[in-house]
């Protein structure tokens, strides 16, 4: 943009700023940032109810949102998961090109799946190579549309991963157990999740757990 401005080119600054905001939020661009924003059950229910009510939307947004929490996965990782990388008997999946501070590609990590995450995967139709055959950018746009229409502030899709990891610690799981689900190689990276302020399963009895797995009607 600086190069172009010095040469007299007219640039759509507003569009560029909006594009950058979406790139950061979808983690196409990323930097180390500690956030403590967690969704409330009410916020999740409102977003999920709105997503389920949108009959024109082809992306199963509600299912992907719930999966993001229970799998502790980033949006880009979810949309890259492949059927061939799923080990049902071991309840684990290969997460390809997992985000790494030094490796951009080739950081493939086997991660454990919670019972809830596995149930959601098995509820998906095997229509192709990918379990969730949708573009991450399109999912991110759908997420923001529902979030913004409900006037829910400062909640990013990536906060769902934070919610999932924190939930495991609140349930009393050890760091080594959590790391197998989150994909963290360095246990020190989990320090900010370990100091929980409450105990128990925040999502116990949550109606969307079964709905996302297709066990009950989500209408």
From TrEMBL:
Residues 34-207 form the Tyr recombinase domain. CDD domains: INT_Rci_Hp1_C. Belongs to the 'phage' integrase family. This is Site-specific recombinase, phage integrase family protein. InterPro entries: DNA_brk_join_enz (IPR011010), Integrase-like_cat_sf (IPR013762), Integrase_catalytic (IPR002104), Tyrosine_recombinase_XerCD (IPR050090). The keyword DNA-binding applies. GO terms for biological process: DNA integration; DNA recombination. PANTHER family: INTEGRASE_RECOMBINASE PROTEIN MJ0367-RELATED (PTHR30349:SF41), PHAGE INTEGRASE-RELATED (PTHR30349). It comes from Oceanicola granulosus (strain ATCC BAA-861 / DSM 15982 / KCTC 12143 / HTCC2516). Pfam families: Phage_integrase (PF00589). Keywords: DNA integration, DNA recombination, DNA-binding. One of its GO terms (molecular function) is DNA binding.
């Amino acid at each position: 943009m600086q190069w172009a401005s010095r040469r007299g080119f007219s640039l759509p600054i507003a569009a560029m700023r909006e594009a950058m905001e979406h790139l950061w939020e979808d983690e196409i661009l990323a930097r180390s940032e500690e956030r403590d924003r967690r969704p409330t059950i009410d916020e999740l229910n409102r977003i999920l109810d709105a997503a389920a009510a949108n009959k024109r939307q082809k992306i199963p947004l509600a299912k992907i949102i719930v999966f993001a929490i229970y799998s502790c996965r980033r949006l880009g990782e979810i949309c890259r998961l492949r059927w061939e990388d799923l080990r049902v008997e071991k309840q684990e999946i290969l997460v390809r090109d997992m985000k790494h501070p030094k490796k951009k590609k080739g950081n493939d990590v086997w991660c454990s799946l919670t019972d809830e995450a596995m149930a959601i995967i098995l509820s998906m139709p095997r229509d192709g190579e990918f379990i969730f055959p949708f573009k991450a950018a399109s999912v991110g746009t759908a997420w923001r549309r529902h979030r913004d229409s409900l006037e829910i502030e400062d909640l990013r899709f990536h906060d769902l991963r934070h919610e999932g990891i924190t939930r495991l610690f609140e349930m009393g799981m050890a760091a080594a157990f959590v790391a197998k689900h989150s994909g963290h190689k360095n246990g020190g990276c989990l320090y900010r999740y370990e100091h929980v302020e409450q105990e128990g399963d925040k999502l116990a009895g949550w109606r969307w757990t079964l709905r996302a797995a297709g066990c009950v009607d989500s209408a």
